[in-house]
Design a protein that fits this description.
mainly alpha
Length: 175
């Protein structure tokens, strides 16, 4: 007796996909690209297919049909693709090397670190941290060197106080 019922994934043919006129699909594809990519709406963690449909004056079924047929993925995968590409650029940018992964995740529109890691791993077959470390290993000149610690104001005050004590001891020993 088998424990798991594993079957091959069946390709579903959604009826509504064939209802959208191909010319309309092409127009919507361009509009979706303009809004999601050019206006960088993918960075907004609250930008849903529903909001996109409202912006385009259509419904979510049409959005879903266009994304599935023209981009060959679902809406979430489509959005996450651009988020991951943005994250990859941030992870290799010297200006952002000190950012924690939670901060990178938030910058690119993920609502939590776990979904960021899962999406990144699904697309890149490595974690964001591994990606950053791999890049730094290949490009060691891009590593940000830690700054030398500045002289603390306490050290300066401490030295002045110590010097003042020494001077006062000398004065008292002369008397």
């Amino acid at each position: 007796m088998t424990k798991y019922n594993i079957t091959a994934k069946k390709e579903k043919e959604a009826h509504y996909r064939s209802l959208v006129n191909p010319t309309l699909m092409d127009e919507m594809k361009e509009k979706i690209n303009r809004i999601i990519v050019m206006e960088k709406k993918y960075l907004d963690k609250d930008y849903s297919a529903k909001k996109l449909a409202e912006d385009l004056g259509t419904n979510t079924r049409y959005i879903s049909a266009v994304v599935n047929v023209r981009f060959h993925m679902n809406y979430t995968s489509f959005i996450n693709k651009f988020r991951i590409e943005e994250a990859m650029a941030i992870l290799v940018d010297r200006r952002y090397q000190k950012l924690r992964m939670e901060e990178v995740s938030d910058m690119v529109g993920f609502s939590n670190r776990q979904s960021f890691y899962a999406s990144f791993y699904k697309m890149m077959k490595m974690t964001p941290r591994q990606f950053r470390l791999q890049h730094l290993a290949l490009h060691p000149g891009e590593m940000v060197k830690p700054a030398k610690p500045a002289k603390d104001s306490k050290d300066v005050k401490g030295k002045k106080a110590k010097a003042a004590k020494t001077i006062s001891k000398r004065k008292s020993s002369k008397k």
